[in-house]
């Protein structure tokens, strides 16, 4: 993990962003030990912003701080993932309804652009880029519904879900399935069919957690079920 901090910004939030991204991307794998002094040296900062970042990440459940300052990247907590997933699905079902009823052409055009970007990344098998574009598709829906702060809440709660998704997405046909689900959501919004938009979200936000057993068989050391 090589990170160059922006000297025009405060160090602490950059350290937090970088560590969180490394955990979510599995660059820092579940169970790996984190040494404050080593991390401070890598970032070129004192141990204070590293400590603060690890405290924040522990509040999100992404790291576990044990006695005598031993810190580890947490294993993927499936019950916590289910809670975060329930929250997100509940919110997005309502967002889809609102967007379908509003039928804002500018919003629809923006979602089409993002969907095309996802398709390009899927064709390249750029899974990290695809997941980032997937998140952006959903973030745009929250923004369009006037709920950007709720998106921030969902992101903070979704670390376990995000790691499960990264483990699952290389599965054959998974990116195509996600693209198809996004097309169904967008088509329903474009057709002003609120009921179809809600059902498309329900169908979409069921894939990864429905495959937990399969993921656990492949990565038993990563999961807490």
Automatic annotation (TrEMBL):
Protein name stated in the entry: GntR family transcriptional regulator
Signal peptide interval: none
Superkingdom of this protein's organism: Bacteria
UniProt cross-references to PROSITE patterns, sorted A to Z: HTH_GNTR (PS50949)
Keyword Flavoprotein: no
InterPro entries: GntR_C, TF_FadR/GntR_C, Tscrpt_reg_HTH_GntR, WH-like_DNA-bd_sf, WH_DNA-bd_sf
Gene3D superfamilies registered for this protein in UniProt: GntR ligand-binding domain-like, Winged helix-like DNA-binding domain superfamily/Winged helix DNA-binding domain
Keyword Transcription regulation: yes
């Amino acid at each position: 993990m090589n990170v160059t901090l922006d000297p025009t910004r405060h160090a602490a939030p950059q350290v937090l962003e970088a560590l969180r991204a490394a955990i979510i991307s599995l660059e820092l794998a579940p169970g790996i030990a984190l040494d404050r002094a080593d991390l401070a040296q890598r970032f070129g900062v004192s141990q204070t912003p590293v400590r603060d970042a690890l405290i924040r990440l522990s509040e999100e459940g992404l790291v576990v701080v044990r006695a005598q300052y031993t810190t580890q990247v947490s294993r993927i907590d499936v019950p916590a993932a289910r809670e975060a997933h329930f929250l997100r699905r509940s919110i997005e079902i309502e967002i889809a309804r609102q967007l379908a009823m509003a039928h804002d052409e500018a919003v629809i055009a923006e979602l089409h652009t993002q969907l095309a970007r996802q398709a390009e990344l899927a064709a390249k098998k750029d899974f990290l880029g695809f997941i980032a574009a997937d998140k952006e598709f959903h973030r745009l829906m929250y923004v369009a519904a006037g709920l950007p702060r709720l998106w921030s809440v969902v992101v903070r709660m979704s670390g376990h879900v995000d790691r499960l998704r990264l483990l699952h997405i290389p599965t054959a046909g998974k990116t195509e399935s996600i693209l198809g689900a996004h097309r169904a959501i967008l088509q329903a919004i474009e057709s002003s069919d609120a009921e179809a938009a809600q059902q498309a979200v329900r169908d979409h936000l069921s894939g990864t957690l429905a495959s937990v057993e399969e993921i656990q068989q492949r990565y038993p050391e990563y999961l807490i079920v």
